[in-house]
């Protein structure tokens, strides 16, 4: 019935750049446990500090905004996040 499950990885809905919810990896792991075949996506506060934990918890899609768009080299920031996520698998 759904192509993926997306949840917010921030503490409150608002504008781009809000802080990460420390419970996001646990939320991702809970979703994976309930729906092991589902594709899990997280939106908000994706950064080099948490992407590996999220990937390890079962997230396979990341909606990274400011960590890429506010970086002086967005392409390099994207590649770095991708490398960190893939290394966590």
3D architecture notes:
With 89 residues, the protein is of the alpha/beta class. The chain has 4 helices and 3 strands. Strands 1-2-3 form a 3-stranded parallel β-sheet. β2 (40-43), α2 and β3 (59-63) form a beta-alpha-beta unit. α1 (24-34) packs parallel to α2 and α2 packs parallel to α4 (74-88). It is globular.
SSE layout and pairing:
Elements: E1 5-8, H1 24-34, E2 40-43, H2 51-57, E3 59-63, H3 66-69, H4 74-88
Parallel strand pairs: 1-2, 2-3
Helix pairs in contact: 1-2, 2-4
What's the rounded overall pLDDT mean? 93
β-sheet strand percentage: 5-15%
By DSSP (H or I, 4+ residues per run), the number of helices equals 4
Radius of gyration: 13 Å
Unreliable segments of 5+ consecutive residues: none
Rough outline: globular
Order of helices and strands: EHEHEHH
Distance between the termini: 27 Å
Helix content estimate? 40-55%
Structural class: alpha/beta
Number of strands: 3
User: Can you list the strand order of the major beta sheet?
Assistant: 1-2-3
- How would a crystallographer describe the biggest sheet? 3 strands, parallel
